[in-house]
What we know:
- The protein is of the alpha/beta class.
- The protein has one domain (42-444): Alkaline Phosphatase, subunit A, CATH 3.40.720.
- The protein has helices at 34-42, 106-114, 134-142, 170-174, 191-199, 204-217, 226-233, 238-260, 297-313, 342-346, 352-377, 434-444; strands spanning 10-13, 16-19, 46-51, 86-93, 151-152, 163-165, 168-169, 178-180, 183-184, 319-323, 332-333, 338-341, 380-381, 384-385, 390-395, 411-414, 425-433.
- The strands form six sheets. A seven-stranded mixed β-sheet has the order 5-10-3-15-16-4-17, sandwiched between helices. Strands 1-2 form a two-stranded antiparallel sheet. A two-stranded antiparallel ribbon has the order 6-7.
- Helix 5 (191-199) packs parallel to helix 9, helix 8 runs antiparallel to helix 9 and helix 9 (297-313) packs parallel to helix 11 (352-377).
- The longest helix is centred in the last third of the chain and has 26 residues, at 352-377.
- The relative contact order is 0.22.
Amino acid sequence: MSIRLSRRTVLRGLGTALALPVLDAMLPTVGFSASAGAAAAAGPRRLLWIYVPNGIDMQNWTPATFGAGYQLTPTLQPMAAFKDKMMVVTGLVCDKARANGDGAGDHARAMAAYLTGVQPRKTEGANIHVGISADQAAAMHIGHLTRFPSLELGIEQGISVGRCDSGYSCAYIHNLAWKNDTTPVTKDTDPRSVFDRLFSSNDPTESAEAAAKRVARNKSMLDFVLDDASSIQNALGAADKAKLDQYMSSIREIELRIDRMKTEDAVQIPAGAVRPTNFVHTTGVRSSGGANVLKNYPDAVALMLDMVVLAFQTDSTRVITLPFASEESNQSYPFADAPVPHHGTSHHMGDPAKMALLAKINLFHIKQLAYLAGKLDNIQEGNGSILDNSLIAYGSGNSDGQRHNHDNLPFLLLGKGGGTVATGRHVNFNNVPTNNMWLAMLDRAGARLDALGDATAELNLT
């Protein structure tokens, strides 16, 4: 190989700063210690939390046996190719999502307490109060290592004012990430916005100019970095050239899909619903009880998962949250043979037909996780894949949506955390706080904490 590249090398053009994936030309060679080389080859540890609302059809979720010999259930079957790289977890409890004297409001509490482990204050006003979330705690410790300390992504935008669930502020039901006790971190639900954030320069004026030119000339972002790319490619080895070509082709394909996806007005406000005074008529926003049919939902989910892949591949961040929808979401799933409102269907009352429809919704979500896993596992990084170096928590703050219970939560831990997790098994942790899992994940990513919310001890994942 004729050149060495810094891990922070970017391709630059007008308003564009295209971060590169990990190339062989970036890895240590002669002159580096064996331990340093091994650490670099292992790749950075990434943390991702994917949240699904309204609970799960647990009878189609929970494996019948524990240990390495468990069989995948119908809902988990799409993860068959990654069974040896994930852990099915039973026995996690989100106690602060329970009423604990506060009455109704399980959906708002489930979302707000899931990553914080703190009981949200029951209020419809501005005096919201919960706690810092695990992702933001991680960002405080390792966020300085990347361009973005964390990314907060989503599909349904939601709102943070007004009443959404039994006297709880909408801030609780729509926000997974909390910077501190009183400040939710708004999620970005626009794939184009996320894409531009990942690949724009730090000059907002120049970025706006570049974006305008791309639209006016129907040009790809890649067109602005071709000269820089050519000069680097000519000096790379064959393997790195192929990897860079594949990376740039994937970026162009994503650009085209973003351009094809049309924003739809998906809001329906039911009669009698509380309408916040500053309600914004935006795709993906819902009000309590209303049906919400985002027809391009599958495209939106796939594109946002592609943003996760790009962010991890370029080491733009190592901390991401992504709820597939807000709690109480009534997104309909006709594309999954379940043309029914999600929240309403989760209250199945034991009706086999409703439970079968709920299982189809759960299956659709798991298929999206499998899509992400396949993408991350196909990107080699030193002696493994990005998936091998990641810890992806997939779960919900509700268990059975009918009962609104918050014990035995549905939970998957995907990825090996750089070899620090014993995967390929179903484990019962016997009623421990969910935050115990967050402590274990943060520790493996270099963000060790002694306390977080209601955590009692870091879980042993080996």
